[in-house]
Structures are given as structure tokens and as C-alpha cells.
Amino acid sequence: MEEEKPWTGPLAEAEGAAICYGGHPSQLRLSGLDWKIAAGSYWVVGGPPDSGKTDLLATMAGLQRPAGGVVRIFGRDVTELGEPDLLKLRTKVGFVFKGGGRMFSDLTVAENIALPLRYHQNLDADHALDTVHALLDLTDLGNIGPERPQRLGMSQQQRVGLARALALKPDALFLDEPLAGLGWRHRQWWLDFLQELSSGAAFMDRKKLAVVVTTNDFAPWSGRRVEYAVIRDQRWQMLGEQKEPPNV
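^ thats the sequence. predicted structure below, dont judge the formating
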């Protein structure tokens, strides 16, 4: 079988895309979206609550389809793909949900992190364990593998979600308001860790991830090399790199 060639174009791109709440065309959040996410880029997307940031992220990650226009992931138009092909593309994309990471409460932390490995790589629990332990160390979660997610604080739950999103060593990582509700110390951990992922972390084989974050406040990224974009009144505006964070 011929080996699949590495993709060298944008990891995700939108052309005139319409973004809707939950993918429902009657609930428009954003229209006319033109955006390219390159390998190794670091985007911080701002906007007020209920402006469509979550739906934008989910659409660009392939979790929901655009209501109009074109969205491509690794060069493939998601509107033309069946679910099996789209599922294959999603293995190259990590997604961290806000508000606790959407963990399964009936599974342990270790079992939650192992899910992508067991489902997509057909690993049994024992063979997934080494990677799970490495991810727990990577995210400074220590020995909480046997715990249930609901027993953890918000910061730890978010990190479990992060560990699960990194399990398959994706090319792009999408994070929906990862700093929301966190104190200064935990925010700094996230900011430093995401910068490391963008620059090339050892666990990721020094591969530079494309990192895309949503936020209600640009201020925590002050002094960091990121590209800003904002959603205002259903309009998309790319602001690029700036010395000082813009206003949301």
C-alpha cells in the first residue's frame, strides 16, 4: 500500500463559510468567513459571550458542518465527506471543550484519556497505559488516573480534557475558553504549556502544533507571539500580531 504523503497546505481553511449555532442554518452566528490555519500557527479568537466562538471552533475542527460556503480540513471539503472519512480527519485534530472538558463520569480519568487510543488505534487498556501515564505527567496531573472526573476541580478536569485531546498526537489543537474560571497560577500554566505546544513539545516529537484558542479577554496573552481575530456583530475580523492585546 502506498504511504500517504504528508499534507503541506493549510490544516483548516474557510472560504465564505457560514457558521451557525449547532450547525442549524436558522441560527446564524457568522457569515462570509475567510480564514486559513497554517501548521504551527497560534490563534487567539475573541468575542463576547454568545457571539459564535464555540460554533466557529467546532466547524473549523470538523465537529459540525458549515451552513454555507466551504470549510476544508487537510484539503478535504467537509461538506462532501461521509462520516467515516470525516472521522478519520478528526483524528488529526484535538479539541478541548470548555467547562470541564466533557469527561465521561462513569469512567476513571485514565479511562477517559485512553478512549481515543482504544477507539482509533484498537489498543487494549494495558497497551494504552504507558501513553496515558505519559500524558498525565505531561499535564502535571500526577497519579490521579484512578479518580473519577467529577471529583476533580475545574482546572484538573480541563487538563484531563487536554490530555485526552493530545493522545493521538494531533496536528492542530482547538481549545474553547481554556482559561475561563481559572486563577492566575493555573492560567499561567496553560499559557506556558500552549506556547510550548506551538513551539514543538517533546511529547509531540517536536512537531509544532497549530493552536487555536477562544476567549472573552485577550489580556492574558499580552507579550506573547500570537495572531488575534475577533467576532463582532456576526462579522469576522483578523487583527494579526499586535504588541498589545486588542479589545474584544
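The first strand starts at residue 12 and ends at 20.
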